[in-house]
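Please describe what follows:
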Amino acid sequence: MRCIYCFHDESKVVDTRTVDDGQAVRRRRECVKCGKRFTSFEKVDTRVVMVIKKDGRRQPFNTDKIRIGLIKACEKRPAAQAKIEQVVAEIERDVMNLLEPEVSSDIIGEMVMKALKNLDEVAYVRFASVYRQFTDINTFMKELATLLHEDRKDQ
C-alpha cells in the first residue's frame, strides 16, 4: 500500500484488528522508506444498490443518510451512538440481503421506522412526522394513536 506521507509503494503491516463486527479490517502500517505509520481499512467490496426516490430519481444507497436521519430523530434523546450505529448496520445488512439491484426509498424508510419504534418512541414520532410528511395535527394524532394501540397490544 502506498505511503500517505512520501508516496512510496511499499509498507509493512504492524497491527491488524477487525472492526464493525468483523465486517472490516483495520491495519496499522509502516512505510519501509520513511518509517511513518498510517492506518488503512479493508472492507468486502459489495455491489452498489440503487435507491429509487419518490420522484423517480435513482441514487446509490448511502448509509450516511440513514445515520444522519437517525441522529436528527434521536437528538436530545437517551439513544446511545452505539445503538444508532447498530441500527445503521442492521438496515444496511437488510437492504443488501434483499438481493435487488434497486430498492425503493419507501422500503428503506419503513426499515428505519421499524428500528426507531424499538429504539426510542419519541425519535420514532419525530422521524415519522418528516418521513410521512404530516400536514396537520390530525395526521400526527392518528400516528400517535396507532403507536399507543400497538403498545397496548404488546403488553
